[in-house]
Amino acid sequence: MIVRILGEGQYRLDDAELDLLNALDDDVEAAAQAGDADWLKRALERLLDEVRTQGTLLDDDLLLDSDVILPDAEASVEQVQDWIGEDSSFEGLMP
């Protein structure tokens, strides 16, 4: 799986990481829905740190389609709410 962090780059992760990433994404989604900026920042940082830790940073010259695109840790509550959308069937940032 290829994950892009906006403004940073792309990481290759094993599909085995998807369960943990989805759990971290659930926390991001809950924080965004609650409108809690501090909680959202902490949740986004945990999600992004997991991608950085478990993933392999890809060379900038390598252009691959991203399976997932994540905002940076400085994204506002409103930006993440827009990113996630208001459709209750949407399941957060991760597929």
From TrEMBL:
Superkingdom as given in the UniProt entry: Bacteria
All residue ranges annotated as the PspA-associated domain in the record: 1-91
InterPro entries xref list: PspA-assoc_dom
Stated name of the protein: PspA-associated domain-containing protein
Taxonomic source organism: Propioniciclava sinopodophylli
